[in-house]
Design brief:
Layout (H helix, E strand, L loop, with lengths): L12 E3 L22 E5 L9 E6 L5 E5 L4 E2 L3 E5 L4 E11 L2 E4 L3 E5 L10 H7 L5 E6 L11 E4 L5 H6 L4 E3 L18 E5 L5 E6 L4 E10 L4 E5 L20 E6 L3 E8 L6 E9 H6 L22 H7 L3 E6 L6 E5 L18 H8 L2 E5 L4 E6 L2 E10 L4 E5 L17 E7 L4 H4 L1 E8 L4 E9 L1
Antiparallel strand pairs: 1-6, 2-3, 3-6, 4-5, 4-7, 7-8, 7-9, 10-13, 10-19, 11-12, 11-19, 13-14, 14-15, 15-16, 16-17, 17-18, 18-19, 20-22, 20-28, 21-28, 22-23, 23-24, 24-25, 25-26, 26-27, 27-28
Length: 454
């Protein structure tokens, strides 16, 4: 059997069969190599070809450090499986109180393929199957699947939550409106997963100016991927934002045409999950955009009012009370006439949060037609002022007070004049009204609050 020269020819599937990982350790002094005992045993009953290998740390008061090429383990007893015939190198080190003791590597010989270990739909989706390879690229939002190359999810988001629809998306920025995320040149970057003789991985990274070759381990049960010698495609400007780009990265979705891999953000911005969004190059090369015609603005955007109609919408017959729709959809970013939020939870924590929940539950505003009076109840404190309407621009100006506030929060409206950007004449009692409180000129985007009748 041919002996592979490099560790990239190492293919191991690891699954723990006895959980012996310690919760706490009482480490000894540094040991001599002769004092460190471990075993690497091929289970020939399970696999006559030697594909199944049991790793055993027999040295008390040490932390096991196994490296089998495409994965690593700290378990005292672990089981790995090699799908392909060949010679494989397993490294073992023992961490002691006096330091790490590195042992001589052990080579095991596998004499036959056992391709049942890659007989899984996820392996086929990722690679095209045994003897095949598949190339992936980041999705810049041009192929009908993702809005852009990266999305933001809550830190512990996993495969199952994505499948059952309970995953909490924080932000899905469209690249065309947020080109700071990644350079356009990286549209030419590629990432290829292969099963031609082993689990090989290669990347071509344009802005990182590197071509990588390595191996990978797909845990189809745990829905994670580990890479060695190469990392997934990512934005060069995001590299410093995370400390782990290799080990047990969560797979959020994987189909024939799309792949999402999660990387935990660990910098000062706070814990969050980057979802790097990929599409297969074959799909991208053959994608034909549907002819949908020009995108229409949201219903109610840039409303047209008859003379006095906006005043009547705000005040009703004589006076009307409004509150922020905190339990529904409180805020939105409306770009070129189109918003994206469906509920307050769509921007939960980074936008809408618990402090806004409290404010919305305990505050209201009121417009009265007689005297054009304006009232605000801010968490139990009622203040008064007046208001005026510019019917030519659908702008409302408050005199003496502002809209409902959340002091210290970046979304708290600080302007006395706001624009009615979405409204539904004759349907305000069921659909409310959207007040645009800030406008981003380059994006043609309004940030707006949704008020409903109380």
């Amino acid at each position: 059997m041919k002996i592979f020269k490099y560790l990239i020819w190492l293919f191991a599937f690891a699954m723990a069969i006895v959980g012996c990982k310690k919760d706490t350790y009482n480490l000894s002094e540094r040991l001599d190599k002769s004092q460190v005992k471990f075993e690497v045993v091929q289970d020939l009953e399970t696999d006559p070809g030697g594909n199944t290998v049991i790793l055993i740390n027999k040295t008390p008061q040490t932390i096991a450090m196994w490296d089998y090429g495409t994965g690593k383990s700290n378990r005292d007893r672990d089981t790995i499986r090699f799908a392909f015939a060949g010679d494989y190198v397993i490294k073992f080190s023992a961490e002691t109180g006096g330091g790490v003791v590195e042992m001589d590597p052990v080579t095991v010989k596998v004499t036959a393929d056992n391709l049942s270990y890659v007989d899984d739909p996820l392996w086929n989706f990722l690679t095209g199957g045994v003897g095949q390879e598949k190339t992936w690229i980041l999705d810049y939002g041009d192929h009908g699947i993702f809005d852009g190359p990266v999305s933001y999810y809550e830190p512990l988001t996993n495969w199952q939550q994505m499948q059952d629809g309970t995953a909490k998306l924080g932000w899905a920025p469209a690249w065309k409106d947020n080109q700071w995320i990644i350079q356009e040149a990286d549209k030419a970057s590629t990432m290829t997963f292969s099963l031609k003789g082993g689990p090989f991985m290669k990347t071509h990274k344009v802005t990182e100016n590197v071509d990588e070759s390595g191996t990978y381990f797909l845990d189809s049960d745990g829905k994670t991927i580990t890479t060695s010698g190469a990392t997934i495609l990512r934005s060069q400007s995001f590299i410093a934002n995370a400390t782990n780009w290799n080990n047990k990265l969560v797979i959020l979705s994987l189909t024939e045409n799309q792949l999402q891999i999660g990387v935990r953000r660990t910098n000062s911005e706070g814990d969050y999950l980057y979802s790097w969004n990929f599409i297969s190059k074959e799909y991208a090369d053959n994608y034909v955009p549907p002819d949908t015609g020009p995108k229409l603005p949201d219903a109610g955007f840039d409303p047209k009012f008859e003379a006095g109609e906006l005043l009547t919408m705000l005040t009703g017959t004589s006076g009307q009370t409004w509150g922020i729709d905190g339990k529904g959809n409180a805020i939105d970013w409306i770009a070129k006439g189109n918003g994206w939020t469906k509920s307050s939870n769509d921007s939960r924590d980074w936008g809408w949060n618990a402090s806004w929940d409290a404010v919305a539950d305990n505050s209201w505003i009121r417009f009265e037609k007689n005297g054009m009076k304006y009232f605000r109840n801010q968490s139990g404190v009622v203040t008064t002022g007046t208001f005026s309407i510019n019917e030519a621009t659908n702008e409302v100006t408050l005199n003496g007070e502002l809209l409902i506030q959340n002091p210290g929060n970046w979304m708290s409206p600080a302007v006395a004049t706001f624009k009615v950007v979405k409204a539904f004449p004759g349907e305000a009692d069921t659909k409310g009204i959207w007040f645009g409180t800030s406008y981003d000129v380059p994006k043609d985007e309004w940030f707006a609050f949704h008020y409903i009748i109380q």
